[in-house]
Amino acid sequence: MLSLSQIQLRDPFVLKQESEGCYYLYGSTDPDIWKAKGIGFDAYRSRDLTLWEGPFPAFRPDSDFWSDKNYWAPEVHEYKGKYYMFATFKADGVCRGTQILVADGPLGPFRPHSDGPVTPRDWECLDGTLWIDAEGTPWIVFCHEWVQIKNGTVCALRLSPELDRAVGEPILLFSAQDAEWVDSVKNGAGYVTDGPYAYGCDNGELLLLWSSFRQGRYAQGIARSKSGDILGPWVQEPAPIFENDGGHGMIFRTFEGKIMLALHAPNNTPDERPVFIELSEANGRLSVREG
Predict the structure, then answer these.
(1) CATH 2.115.10.20 given to domain 4-288
(2) Span 219-239, pLDDT tens digits
(3) Among 48, 76, 107, 263, which is most exposed with the fewest C-beta within 10 angstroms?
(4) Domain map of the chain by residue range?
């Protein structure tokens, strides 16, 4: 059994399984996700969020898999009786993008479901997440990366009911510079958008977590939909909810009903670790719970 401090992992995502009474933890688990050849994604399992079994090999590419590097940010969503992994991949000469994988159980093995990335093939994209709207329509929310367009954006794209392809054209939700707290990276080279995750509040408001950089440190921001719909318009909170060199967060509820923010910190490899922070929610507003 492992503690969180023993698990090197970026971009944490927690799946709560009511039927099993346990949690599954996913993330970017390769020791070097930046330059080394991609290995795959590991998963961990826990009943108390403190001690974790694993790692379990949730995804390993077949020999003919199109991507060989940048295996990033896997999320696993239960949908219509199966488990779907949204994950980012790249290869030389091929744009980074989010592909959808599928498995019969939360530990996999996950296999390609979509035919390559569902994000636009000529865009550098990353960090796709699933959102099901009030009409039951599935969407992928993802980032159009700053390395291609300088001012990174967050976009939404309809998916087929089978989650195997995109439907229509991507829709711009907002850009990094829409948030007053965001600073540029690499001496003005660009403005980052990372890790979107949609969260529906108890009062019906819709929030979108996303990450960027503030004063040189990774930070976790929040945007708010004025319409309550994934298409917004989106208004940025004036300050991050977490700015101590951590981010790429998501929110889950414990079996006891606590609201938890999962993110990684610090942001440097190989020191990154999954971190859970209890939140309070009041009238559609999130804050770090004191005490």
Answers:
(1) yes
(2) 999 999 999 999 999 999 999
(3) 48
(4) 4-288
